[in-house]
Amino acid sequence: MLNQKPIKVLSPPIIVQPQSLALCAIYIILPWSKCLWYLISKAMWSNLPFDPLANIFSYLSPDSLARAKSACKSWYACANTSALPTRNHGHFIYAHNPADDSWHLLPLDFIPNPVRPIASIGGLILLREATTTSLQLAICNPFTRQFRQLPKLNVTRTNPAVGIIELNSANFEVYVAGGMSEASSIGGGSSYEPSLEVYNSVHDHWKTIRSMPMEFAVRLTVWTPNESVYCNGVLYWITSARAYTVMGFDIVNKNWRESSVPMADRLEFAALVQRNGKLSLVGGTSEAGEACIWELTENNNWRMNERVPEELGARLLGGKGRWGSINTRCVCIAGAMCLYRDLGSGMVVWRECAKKGEWEWHWIEGCGTIKGMKLQNFPIKGLLLHPYLASSSFLNE
C-alpha cells in the first residue's frame, strides 16, 4: 500500500497535487540504432569483439539489423549467429523530474514485441503491437515492468479508432470503432467495419455492442487519431483533417453524435481534452501563432475561456511562425494540460495551483541530454500517468 507522502521516483513535469502522485511521462519509440553513435565511438566499430557486438545487435529492430548485416562479413556472421540475444530494447519512457529539473530514461525491454503507445489508463499504458497491421492491444506498467496482451477482437480490424474509459482504479473499458475488416476468403476485398466493440477489464473479453452508421465508420477509420476523451457519459474523438469536427458515442443511450468545432476551417491544429469535468478544445490558428482553449457549454456551444500566452506559444513554435509548420500535440489530466511537439523542444504547461486555486502557465525545458549523453531530437507521444508501484493482479493473469 502507498502511504500519503509524495513519492519522488521519476516525478512529473506537471504535479497537480502532491497527494495525487501524478506524473508526466514522455513515451517515444526510439530505435537503439539511432543512439549507438553516442555509446560507442566510430573508430571502435570495426574492432568490437564478437560478444559485445552481438549484445549491441540484440537492441536493434528487425529493419535496422538487416541493414547492419549488409555492412561487412563479420557483422553478417554475428547477426546470423544463434547466440544473438533476443530482446526488444527499442522502447523507452523519458520522464522529467521537476525536483532537480532532470530527465530520466526507463527502458521497456520487458515488452517482447515492438509496440506503439495509444493512451494511459491510470498508471498503465495501452499499447498496440507494431508487428501486424491488424489491431492487437496490450497493457503494460512501466514501473513494475509488467506486460500483458489483451484478448483478440471479435472482428479483425485495421486502423480503427480506440477510446478509453476509466470506471475506477481497478476497472476500465476499451472501445474500438470502425476500421477496415479483413478481405473475404471467398475473394471479396476488405471493407469498412461499421461496428463497435468494448473490452471490460473485469470480464476480460470483447463484446460487440452496437452497429454504427457507415459514414462514421469511414471517418473514424480515415480521419481520426487514437486520442479520445471521455466526458459526461460520452466518448469523443476529433477528426484529424481540416475542417475539424468532433464525433461522440453516448455510452448509456448507445447513439452517435457529431459536433462542430469553433473556427474549424482556420485551426492549424486541434485537440480534445477534459478540464474541470467539461469537454475542452485546444487549437492554434494561422494568425500570428495564436492558440486558444474553448469549453463546451451545457447548451452545446463552444466558449473561449483562455489563450496560450504569446511568449510561450512563440517559444514552442521555435521561430516557425505557424502552428501548421510543427507537429503540435496536447495531453491532459485532472488539473494539468501540456502542449508539446518533440523530445527536445520543451513543453507549455497549464496547471492548477492548489494553493491559489487558479490555473497558471509554465515552461518545461525539453530533453537534450541524459546523464551526459547527448540525444537527437525525435517525435514523441506524451502520456500523463499516475504511477502504480505495486504489482498489478490484472497484468499477472
TrEMBL record:
Residue ranges constituting the F-box domain according to the UniProt record: 45-84
Residues of the F-box associated beta-propeller type domain: 117-304
GO molecular function: ubiquitin-protein transferase activity
Organism: Capsicum annuum
GO biological process: SCF-dependent proteasomal ubiquitin-dependent protein catabolic process
Xref: Gene3D superfamilies: 1.20.1280.50, Kelch-type beta propeller (2.120.10.80)
UniProt-recorded name of the protein: Uncharacterized protein
InterPro entries: F-box-assoc_dom_typ3 (IPR013187), F-box-assoc_interact_dom (IPR017451), F-box-like_dom_sf (IPR036047), F-box_dom (IPR001810), Kelch-typ_b-propeller (IPR015915), SCF_F-box_component (IPR050796)
SUPFAM superfamilies: F-box domain, Kelch motif
Pfam family, one: F-box-like
